[in-house]
Amino acid sequence: MNASDPVSVVITTYNRSDALLAVLDGLSRQSDRHFEVIVADDGSREEHVRPIVESANAKALKLVHVWHPDVGFTAACIRNRGVALASSPYIIFLDGDCVPERDFIAQHKALAQTGLFVNGSRVLLSPKLTQRVLAGSEQICGRSWLFWLGQRVLGHASKLTHLLRLPDLPRRIERAFSWKGIRSCNMGVWKADFERVDGFDESFSGWGHEDADFVLRLHHSGVLRKNGFCATEVFHLWHQEANRNKASQNAQRVKERVKNGLIRSTLGYSQARLNDNARISRL
């Protein structure tokens, strides 16, 4: 992919406007400016929607905000909605609590390759460092290795791999399906491949493993995983874990699909959506 080629960044969010504003700030600092932003909002309350649509960065990024009513954790559905509004042939998924480094877009483009999707990773930040970022008293994009070494020593960052930039070597490609490290919070995929598997499966309810199912079906369709370590890491802002009472049930469904070779969603991207109260704002 050329640096001038456009990509679409689809960001999921829910009732965390302070974190999303930090993510948008990171996107506003990108070295590569050839991208659009779609915020896929899983039913945030109005007090969390308003700061986003009114923010200066949202307008500077020419952001599109798509919202649907809150009916529980429906990440698969809102991601599909976001992709439906994307105008570029390549989609980068990002979560609304994952702040990108300045070369995030450029690195994803450098790793993009036909027949592959890019699975990125994240650096976990501590509650204390997260609070400083959310308060606007600490900027984490573009900081030196010395700053991050200090944060690592103090226990505020889980690793330092984001400081390295390793070349695009064949060893990045995984030819067998693996659950380990699947991150839809940082993932790049061709829109044509997304459509081939009919996107995320919206029949998965509650938190967990809808991203593993998506990756598995990509694998069944012949699209392999390329790891974006030491290239596309994002800074994950701390938060309490979501309710995971459906995780084991969802995991079992994925295990069954490992055996049956399913490619297309049972309830996916291409379904008709009539009178469902979605709201779209173009800034």
Q: What would you note in describing this structure?
A:
The chain is α/β, with parallel strands linked by helices. It has one domain: Alpha-Beta Complex (Spore Coat Polysaccharide Biosynthesis Protein SpsA, Chain A), CATH 3.90.550.10. Helices cover 33% and strands 18% of the residues. The protein contains ten helices and twelve strands. The chain has helices spanning 17-28, 46-53, 56-60, 75-84, 104-111, 127-135, 145-153, 191-196, 210-220, 247-260, and strands spanning 7-13, 35-41, 64-67, 90-95, 98-100, 116-119, 122-124, 173-174, 186-190, 224-227, 234-236, 279-282. It has a nine-stranded mixed beta sheet with strand order 8-10-6-9-4-1-2-3-12, with helices on both faces. Strand 1, helix 1 (17-28) and strand 2 form a beta-alpha-beta unit. Helix 1 packs parallel to helix 2 and helix 9 (210-220) packs parallel to helix 10 (247-260). It is globular, with a radius of gyration of 18 Å. The mean pLDDT is 93.
